[in-house]
Description:
4-stranded parallel sheet
Amino acid sequence: MSDVKLGALCWNQYTDWPSLLAAGERADRLGYDTLWTWDHLYPIVGSDDGPIMEGWLTLAAWAQATERIRIGLMVGANTFREPALTAKMATTLDHISNGRAILGIGGAWFETEHEAYGIPFGDGFPERLRWLGEALPIMRGMLHGERPTATGPRYAAKAVRNDPMPIQEHLPIVIGGSGEQVTLKLVARYGDANNVGGGIANVRRKDAILVQHCETVGRDPSEIERTTGLGTVVIRDSRADAERVQREIAARNGGAEIWKDQPVGTPEDVAEKIAPFLDIGYRHLIAGFPSPYDEETMTRFATEVRPLLEAH
């Protein structure tokens, strides 16, 4: 059996609920391994002046509507919630889904939504990463049956209890981001999986740095599942037709600019584009599916591209 995993990241912006629900159900039917959405309060691609659905409630509804696919945020915004509450929410999601929850978490970056909603944003990315560094031991401790205490400076907890425990013996924490000095060090210390993107050259470089951090903290790098975001995937019988659909999707999503160097084309084009990730150990491949959640692409990625990757 191949160890290639496919993830579906269904954007929760510029959509309606029936469409977003149906996309999650489709990913489950098609045999995707994981299902994700964003933790944002304003759209982040194209104009931010548009509709978006809240992430955790989307996951809870998907958990009820699906049977086997694993579910998480790619990734949760640490700034939005106290870490003990986040761990409790992930645990409840695990019960709703009968043991399929993933806790995705990152430092957060979109200042516009923080300002609009009155959420503290800190004085810069270094401070938000310090907050994340405080939050992770609390979340990990609660998920592992400990009763962590924290005394700040950002977060406080007092022998906080997580009852009931998750259904999973080990509910995984996925840490998003690729900062070389702090984020990847947090992955090495606390993460069960990472998530980096930006193309094969960037992922290769970041992975080498992650391995170095693992050596420093005494962690076996093989304990950390490697995941990468592929960008937006569009599949058609011809590259020209796929590029046309790509333009239509971008226009629908707040008039977004066309992303360059994406896995767009025939199934063979797409497989060729993403196969190099397999060679460096990144075998959990997460495809972005913006609204309207192109059914042909979602289907062909699972049924035509997956066999090409498994044969690689």
